[in-house]
Prior knowledge:
Blueprint: E1 12-13, E2 16-26, E3 31-37, E4 49-54, E5 61-66, E6 75-81, H1 89-92, E7 100-103, E8 121-127, H2 132-137, H3 141-146, E9 149-156, H4 163-174, H5 176-182, E10 186-192, H6 203-209, H7 211-216, E11 225-231, H8 233-245, E12 259-263
Parallel strand pairs: 8-9, 8-11, 9-10, 11-12
Antiparallel strand pairs: 1-2, 2-3, 2-7, 3-6, 4-5, 4-7
The structure holds adenosine-2'-5'-diphosphate.
Amino acid sequence: MNVELNVETPKTYRGVDALRVLSVRHWTDYTFSFTCERPASFRFRSGEFAMIGLPNGDKPLLRAYSIASPNWHEELEFYSIKVADGPLTSRLQNLAVGDHILIRPKPVGTLVHDALIAGKRLVLFSTGTGIAPFASIIRDPETYEKFETVVLTHTCREVAELDYGKHLFAEIQQDELLSEMVDGRLQLISTTTRENSEHMGRMTDWLRDGRFEAATGAALGAADDRVMICGSMAMLQDHKAICEARGMDEGSNSAPGAFVIEKAFVD
Length: 267
Ligand code: A2P
């Protein structure tokens, strides 16, 4: 894909910064991830999202994307679905190394440590590409300074969609610095709902019928657990209802609480 850019540095397209794509990886027919260069001035908190996109005539076409890399990383990583007729993802999925993506410089979001009160266990519930902000959180040292243990759940329709999370988890175990930081305190639970696999079912069902407690060693509870949730609107509502039923209150940047939610962004 060729993106016409002005020649000044940093590169811009109609006033929006353009960043060079450094790698692209296609995980399934429906998902892919890519990394791009990170300007020194680009600051964010792990778990936040930014507006990214492509040139589109007069006006850049931008959508909200969680930053999947942790805030200490020199590259920015994103994990995206591919929608055949999606205005942005139908084009974004053709990205190649050397292309440029557009980005607005002010990331925001609620899936951040600042929005949670102190706790012992951090539980991250995700479905589909909702795992992206947690790819950032589980690689952030702050996560392991603030919590004794971390549980990441990832539920997808099909087995292949779990690969991104499994690969990330394996990468953390293999990395000398990350594995020392995590020190065996991170657990990944991957489940499918529409294809047979080792662990099956929605995590909301696991929470209700005791499978979550059996798999992690403790039922979800307000005393010790702090929760971040990222998925579809229906998924958020159902997980939120379970958190509230267990006595947790929703947090925000201005008023931290026991759980926080954010919609996984789609085209
Ligand atoms: P299911 O296959 O039972 O619908 P989607 O692509 O629709 O966002 O779904 C991604 C994953 O999230 C699927 O495994 C899906 O399960 C699951 N899911 C969808 N809605 C909910 C919900 N309300 N609560 C928990 N999990 C959900």
